[in-house]
Amino acid sequence: MTEPSPARHTPRVFSGVQPTGNLTLGNYLGAVRNFVALQEDDSVERLYCVVDMHAITQPFKPAELSGAIRQLTAAFLASGLDPAKSILFNQSRVTAHAELGWIFNCVSRLGWLNRMTQFKDKAGKNRENASAGLYVYPNLMAADILVYRATHVPVGDDQKQHLELTRDIAAKFNNDFGVPDFFPQPEPLIPPESARIMSLRDGTAKMSKSDPSDNSRINLSDTADAIAQKIRKAKTDPEPLPSETAGLTDRPEARNLVGIYAALAGTSADAVLTEFGGRGFGDFKPALADLTVEKIAPIGEEIRRLSADPGHIDTVLADGATRAAALARPIMDEVYETLGMVGGGTA
Ligand code: AQP
User: N or C: which end of the chain has fewer CB within 10 A?
Assistant: First the structure.
């Protein structure tokens, strides 16, 4: 891990995932697998959050939200997150996130938010009708991270711009209120081979849990048969695979499938092409299906086992929230004091 600036902040990892549907292979390879790997480092504290307050920035069904929160927590556990090593909780239980989120609405600048590409993508054409929450989403994300003074944030490539905004908000708060080093400058941790996994139906669109087409993604909860079938149906082109990565330029679907194979096998795209270069998708897809089933299907089985015991999941989330709140509250006390708010946040 690189040393965050400034060095006075002890290393702490935070990341969040929205309970907006089944976790995808993209969420897993881009983020969650990295969350698990970070558990090997005893020198660092880790918080992984089901960001339910972010999930309500877009249309949602209240009757389905609690199920989605438990389902995502089951997927975290099934992927290897261990409540003894990481703090697992849902965001709405720790009110400090919302408190600091509001304060950051007053620190962040409209000009900064106007540049956020995720808002443009998610709001779509009907921008006037998007929620104000979707617009200030990056301010709440900055609060999620900085309310723990987290120094490292494992995320996929699509979150890089929001992390840059988090750093800008931290710097502006420190500067405006004359408290140098109050908040750290958090560093993104982006996995090189799986920073952005693309849709199986369109190699130019991100694989996403809220894509209307289930065939566009592998869900961690998919059965072995469903995984194999989706890979069989994945969009490709008629050419054989090239023997070097330069040959994948302008072939987004081929590049995506090779990238998925490399990420799952723990190797590079070059190594995959050394093995499969010159061979067609008739050879490559079955190999990719076997590898994906081997790595992902056991997670789906474990999700189904854990989902049968919602009481256990609720206990994990409640314990995690207690531990997270204990870390956040003293930092919020300092924030209120810095802003001159007498007794802020204590009622
Ligand atoms: N396709 C992807 N490739 C690599 N990483 C990805 N991530 C998401 N999609 C990919 C990473 O997963 C983490 C959690 O994402 P999120 O739930 O907070 O929201 P998101 O980035 O908007 O992901 P989705 O799946 O596209 O959700 P919806 O459909 O609800 O918008 C993040 O670290 C993200 O980078």
Answer: C
CA distance readout (Å), 155 to 16, 23, 124, 265: 9, 14, 23, 20
Query: Which residue's CA lies nearest to atom 26 of ligand 1?
Result: 208
Distance CA 95, CA 101 (A): 10
Question: pLDDT tens for residues 132-174?
Answer: 999 999 999 999 999 999 999 999 989 999 999 999 999 999 9
Residues forming the active site: 122, 206, 209
Domains of the chain, earliest start first: 12-195+309-339 (3.40.50.620), 214-306 (1.10.240.10)
What pLDDT was estimated at residue 219? 97
What average pLDDT score do residues 116-122 get? Answer: 95
Pocket test for ligand 1, best of 158, 204, 217, 255 (most atoms within 8 A of CB): 158
In the numeric block, which tokens belong to residue 329? 């509250």
Q: How far is the CA of 24 from the centre of ligand 1 (A)?
A: 8
The pLDDT value given to residue 7: 62
Q: What is the pTM of this model?
A: 0.94
The neighbour count for residue 294, using CB atoms within 10 Å, is: 13
